[in-house]
Structures are given as structure tokens and as C-alpha cells.
Amino acid sequence: MNRRQAYETAQRRRSLTVAGISTAAVLAAIILLVPLTPGWPQVRASFFDGGVFAQTFPTLLRAFLIDVMIFAWSVPLILTLGLAIALARGARAPALFPLRIFGAVYVDVFRGVPVVLTIYLIGFGVPGLGLPRPWNSPYIWGTVALVLTYSAYIAEVLRSGIESIHASQRNAAICLGLSERDTMRYVILPQAVRRVVPANMNMLVALQKDVALLSFIGPVEILRQAGIYKSLLANFTPYVVAAVIFLIVTVPATRYADHLLNRDRDARS
User: Fewer Cβ atoms within 10 A, N terminus or C terminus of the chain?
Assistant: First the structure.
């Protein structure tokens, strides 16, 4: 190890030490000072009741499986529709100009309207048409609302990935005799998709959390079940249980997204 490497190692070690000490100091201050506040006993009884936590955790975990199922069948639809909108926005042929307009309007509308409002409008509006079962199910129309909203965001992420591919790649493929369609399919899209995987992972983490918003239109998933327990037990601990369950899923997914982002950045550097 030369002098420069030794210096960099010492600096990293020093930074880690300072970060560890500061983090420990902050945690210690929270642990020691919060219980000294006047209202802490009431807050602890209302939000951190161990008996209520143990009582509600199994049921809330089963209710969370509904969130997972909605997420699982929404993701393929979101990715498919998002890719279609991204390709429509990037269409170059003059005859496809209406598709570009449609794609732009679609993205502007569904990115501009809050997701909870879209869920309300579709989840209550479409079943109000008097459709027969199962077409009046809140699971169906809640999923539609999520797909419409998140596909607009995914479309923009994919479009940015497509536009990040240098024009020389497209020109080289055309010179080799590939059609515009094959160039997009075999040359542009594979590279673009790889570049936007970290960003799309973050969007999917957000989707997993927003599935809970469907509780506003009927499905008894984890948030609705926590609200039922809160009313029955007159205690807010079930909401803390729901938060813990979400964290168990979303924190590893977020860290994995960060890992992919760092790996992609290192590969480019």
C-alpha cells in the first residue's frame, strides 16, 4: 500500500467513525429525551402497545397479502402500457403524429392528477354506471387507476432511457440493413431498459405503498384492516404494525434499487 492509498484508507475510516458517533449520539438523544416529554405515557399507550401489536400482527400480515396480489398483477400491466406510451411519444413517422399527441396528453393528465383522486374518480365513477358483477369490483377499478397513473410515470422513465441512446447506435443499425422497427427492438430498447432499471425499481417501491390507497374504495387490505382494529380497540398501534410490515418489504427493495443505481453509475465511470 502506497502513501496515497494509506491516506485514503485513513480518511474513509475517519469518516465512518465520525458518522457512527454522530448517529449514535442522535439515537441516544431520541431514546433518552422522548420518554421525558409530558405526553409520552399517553403516546406509548396509544401507539406502542405491545399486547395490541401481538394481537393484530397476524391478521394485518394476512391482509397485506392482498396488497401484494394487487401489486403483482398491476406491475405487468403498468410496464406494458408504459412501454406502449413511451414508444407512442417517440414515434417519428408523420402518420403517427396523432399517437405522439395522445401519448403527451395521457402523460400530462395522469401525472398531473393525484393518484388518490384518480382512484376516487375511477373507483367510484365506473361502478356507478351499474355494471354487473364482477365488473363493478373495486379490485378491478382500483387496479385500473393504479395502472393508468403509474404507466404515465414509467412511460417517461422509459422515454428518457430511449432518448439517452446515442444517435450513432440507430444510424449504425440502419446502415446494417435493420428496419426502424428492428432497430428499436434489438438495438435501442435493450440498452434503454437496462439504463432505467434503477429508476423503475424506485417507481415500483412507490407503487407497493400506494396500493394501500385502494382501501378508500373498498378492498379490506392492510390499511383498511388497521383502521378496523383502531376502531375496535380504540388504539393506534395497528397503524404502527402496518407501517412495520411495509418497512419490512420496502426497505430491502429500496436498498436493492440503490445498489442497482450505484452499479450502473460505476459501470459508466
Answer: C
Helix orientation angle between 197-210 and 138-164, rounded to the nearest 10 degrees: 160
Sign of the four-CA dihedral 129, 131, 133, 137: negative
Amino acid letter, residue 43: V
The per-residue pLDDT for range 94-104, each reduced to its tens digit, is 888 888 999 99
Asked whether the beta carbons of 209 and 246 are under 8 A apart, the reply is: yes
The neighbour count for residue 234, using CB atoms within 10 Å, is 9
Q: Residue 143's closest CA among 222, 58, 232, 207?
A: 207
Q: From 207, 197, 189, select the one nearest 77 (Cα to Cα).
A: 207
Alpha carbons within 13 angstroms on the beta-carbon side of residue 252 total: 5
246 grid coordinates: 411495509
Q: What is the pLDDT of residue 27?
A: 85
Instruction: State the average pLDDT for the chain.
Output: 87
pTM: 0.83
Which one-letter DSSP state was computed for residue 132? Answer: P
Q: Contact, 209 vs 250, CB < 8 A?
A: yes
Categorise residue 49: left if φ over 0, alpha if ψ from -120 to 50, beta otherwise. beta
Phi-psi region of 137 (alpha: psi -120 to 50; beta: other; left: phi over 0): beta
Task: Return the closest-CA partner of residue 114 out of 156, 148, 140.
Answer: 148
Length of the chain, in residues: 269
Query: Hey, what's the cell of 173?
Result: 443499425
190 pLDDT higher than 90 = no
Q: Supply the pLDDT for residue 268.
A: 67
With beta carbons less than 8 A apart as the criterion, state whether 156 and 111 touch. Answer: yes
